[in-house]
């Protein structure tokens, strides 16, 4: 009886947490293919850098908004940017971000449209194996 209870006590927590997984985005650059837009996001673990064209109804000296910081992805795919309240109020009034099929979908709330930032895989860096040798002839 004690052996069965011990097995049950060990296997129950493992079974409960077995199916849990956190939504993530692959590390790298995500960019749009829309002509005239240079919007992109760069992801590294739980850090994100976003450059999004400023909304049409909020012109300023810069043509893009930039922000970098931590983020998390909620169960429905919503990307929650961990901003201070004044910055979050400004961004959330104009933009909303979701993880969809390995891409970042940007909802432009002021223009009432959306577009995707697609993952652009990096190219592999090839290291040349340099041979150890006599470099005395080089100046």
Largest β-sheet summary: 8 strands, antiparallel
How many individual β-strands?
8
User: What is the C-alpha radius of gyration, as a whole number of Å?
Assistant: 23 Å
The 3D shape can be described as: globular
Mean pLDDT: 79
Judged by helices, strands and strand pairing, the structural class is: alpha+beta
Q: Which strand order do you get reading across the main beta sheet?
A: 5-4-3-2-1-8-7-6
| Separation, N- and C-terminal Cα atoms | 81 Å
Order of helices and strands: HEEEEEHEEE
Q: How much beta, percentage-wise?
A: 35-45%
Poorly predicted runs: 14-20
Name the helicity range: 10-25%
* Helical stretch tally: 2
Molecular structure report:
With 139 residues, the chain is an alpha+beta fold. Helices cover 19% and strands 35% of the residues. An eight-stranded antiparallel beta sheet has the order 5-4-3-2-1-8-7-6. β6 (95-100) and β7 (103-108) form a beta hairpin. The protein is globular and about 70 Å long. The N and C termini lie far apart (81 Å).
């Amino acid at each position: 009886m004690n052996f069965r209870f011990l097995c049950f006590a060990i296997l129950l927590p493992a079974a409960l947490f077995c199916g849990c997984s956190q939504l993530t985005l692959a590390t790298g650059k995500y960019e749009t293919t829309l002509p005239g837009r240079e919007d992109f996001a760069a992801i590294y673990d739980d850090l994100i850098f976003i450059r999004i064209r400023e909304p049409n109804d909020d012109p300023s000296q810069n043509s893009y908004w930039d922000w970098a910081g931590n983020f998390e992805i909620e169960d429905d795919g919503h990307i929650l940017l961990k901003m201070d309240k004044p910055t979050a109020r400004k961004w959330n009034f104009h933009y909303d971000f979701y993880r969809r099929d390995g891409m970042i979908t940007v909802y432009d709330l002021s223009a009432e449209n959306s577009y995707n930032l697609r993952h652009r895989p990096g190219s592999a860096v090839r290291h040349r194996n340099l041979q150890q040798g006599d470099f005395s002839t080089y100046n």
